[in-house]
Design goal:
By secondary structure, the chain is α+β, with helices and mostly antiparallel strands. The chain has two domains: 3-217, 3-Layer(aba) Sandwich (Rossmann fold); 231-339, no CATH class. It has eight helices and 23 strands. The chain has helices at 37-45, 93-98, 108-113, 129-142, 159-173, 187-193, 211-216, 221-226; strands spanning 3-10, 15-22, 25-30, 52-57, 60-64, 69-70, 78-81, 147-151, 179-184, 196-201, 204-205, 209-210, 231-234, 236-239, 242-245, 250-253, 264-267, 282-285, 287-293, 297-303, 311-316, 328-331, 337-339. The strands form six sheets. Strands 3, 7, 8, 9, 10, 11 and 12 form a seven-stranded mixed sheet that branches. A five-stranded antiparallel sheet has the order 2-1-4-5-6, covered by helices on one side. Strands 13-17-23 form a three-stranded antiparallel sheet. The longest helix is centred in the middle third of the chain and has 15 residues, at 159-173. It is globular.
Length: 341
């Protein structure tokens, strides 16, 4: 099972230009709202037509602008879950699921698998958000598609329900043996569900990375921000192992060589320490600090140099009252993410 996508499409604000290949497993398209993620899925499904390029699924050409191949959506064997689930309002749960099945097929096993058999005679207007998602997923799986496209399936759910349905989605997709494209702007959803991550920035896809590698070493400024890093700043290599961060007013002696082309550096908020240790020996000033209390930790905003952007330090709660904020923090050069533009 394999999906190859290489397409371009002119949009209002930018040109969509995405290139990637994926096999079995969950492949996440991560990006800000309006960056072209959903449009990519629509082009794969045949709902939208690229201006140029090629889409191949398991050796079948779905779209090829040069050869003038453009299969209709119903011929592509693509399962698509929309953000609003797109259930047929005038059909019951059972009838919605059966629209994806072959004639005379028994829908009961599918209804039982997704725990919606007791809702078989209910209509979409009578269902909760979680129930609607289960029905939409059951209908999609019943189609037995060659590829599954999930367009922000948790965007309309509250945090507790989303957590529950993430577990169900993970169970459904584990070992499914087909490519799954999962669109999201939420780094936590991507971390929980995907094996591979591809960032999209203003319509342009970046190099896909394995999920853990993506969070440990995002590679680019955009990817670092999408991965949740709040502390990203311009960086200049002074020597092969010395990095200057002018907006923070510090220089860092690295333990590794600095690759050519590095233009930014990032440090995660949890990497800062209040005390120097042999590992955390790089210091940074703490100016104009402001503490914000979260349920289980403190978020400290501060400046490292006057008139520049705020940084963020997160520290666990250790007692009652605000934490004592030191005049400087420490971190390890190993925690510095070296980023390309």
């Amino acid at each position: 099972m394999a999906l190859e996508v290489s397409i371009r499409k002119k949009l209002n604000r930018f040109t969509l230009d995405v290139n990637f290949e994926t096999g079995e497993g969950v492949f996440a398209l991560l990006g800000a709202s309006g960056c072209g993620k959903s449009m990519t899925l629509k082009c794969i499904a045949g709902i939208e037509r690229p201006d140029e390029g090629r889409i191949v699924l398991n050796g079948r050409v779905l779209f090829d602008s040069k050869k003038r191949i453009d299969l209709k959506p119903q011929k592509r064997r693509v399962g698509y879950m929309f953000q609003d689930y797109a259930l047929f309002p005038n059909m019951t749960v059972k009838e919605n699921v059966m629209t994806g099945m072959k004639p005379k097929s028994d829908p009961l096993p599918c209804l039982e698998r997704f725990r919606i058999h007791e809702l078989a005679d209910a209509y979409p207007a009578q269902l909760s958000g979680g129930q609607k998602q289960r029905v939409a997923m059951a209908r999609l799986i019943a189609q037995d598609p060659d590829v599954i496209l999930l367009d922000e399936p948790f965007s309309a759910l509250d945090s507790y329900l989303k957590w529950q349905l993430e577990q169900e989605m993970h169970e459904t997709l584990s070992g499914i043996g087909k490519p799954v494209l999962f669109v999201s702007h939420d780094r936590d959803e991507v971390y929980h569900l995907s094996q591979t991550v591809c960032c999209i920035d203003e319509g342009r896809s970046q190099k896909p990375q394995r999920m853990r590698e993506f969070f440990e070493n995002p590679g680019t400024r955009t990817a670092a921000i999408l991965s949740g890093c709040k502390n990203v700043t311009p960086a200049q290599a002074v020597t092969a192992r010395e990095l200057c961060l002018p907006e923070w007013g510090i220089r860092i002696r690295m333990r590794r060589d600095i690759p050519e082309g590095i233009a930014y550096a990032g440090i995660r908020a949890h990497a800062f320490r209040a005390e120097r240790t042999p590992e955390c020996d790089v210091q940074i000033p703490v100016l104009e600090p402001f503490a914000l209390e979260d349920p289980f930790e403190w978020t400290i905003s501060f400046r490292a140099a006057k008139a520049h952007a705020m940084l963020q330090w997160k520290t666990a709660k250790t007692g009652a009252g605000q934490p004592e904020i030191p005049g400087k923090l420490f971190f390890s050069s190993d925690d510095v993410m070296l980023l390309y533009p």
